[in-house]
Amino acid sequence: MKKWLTMVALSATLLLVNIATACEHEGACSQSCSLGPHFISPKDGDVISGDVHIKMGIKGMQVHPAGEVIKGTGHHHLIIDGAYVPENTTVPKDDTHIHFGKGQTETTVKLKPGKHTLTLQFADGHHQSYGKIMSRTINVTVK
Ligand SMILES: [Cu+2]
Fold this sequence. Notes:
- It contains one helix and nine strands; from the N terminus they run αβββββββββ.
- By secondary structure, it is an alpha+beta fold.
- About 15% of the residues lie in helices and about 35% in strands.
- The strands form two sheets. Strands 2, 4, 5, 6, 8 and 9 form a six-stranded mixed beta sheet that branches.
- It has two domains: about 1-30; about 30-140, Immunoglobulins (Immunoglobulin-like).
- It has one helix at about 1-25; strands at about 35-40, 45-50, 50-60, 60-65, 75-80, 95-100, 105-110, 115-125, 135-140.
């Protein structure tokens, strides 16, 4: 009886380990399984020729068009060669801070050849940043 219980406990432990491993290898969250935005593509360290096609994902929140603030929702921002935007600060709108206020999750950008950082910043319906925890930065090289 005692041996049987040990076997059950052991199986349960193995199952949990399997779930954790599966999460790490899930394509959409290969950078990390933590909450926040992530790049489905490109990946950190990618070398890209031509235009950069970007696919954005989010974990722990829902994408919703800008306009009204709804708890647990927001929209993506792409920051080119710049830092994340501190919490409760309005995300600037310029050539290097691109808003996806319609709820878009894909875009294509043209970057000069060389090394660049791409940062995703998730912010609420009034473009107020959710801060560092809701940002993600990767490095890419454009040929
Ligand atoms: Cu915005």
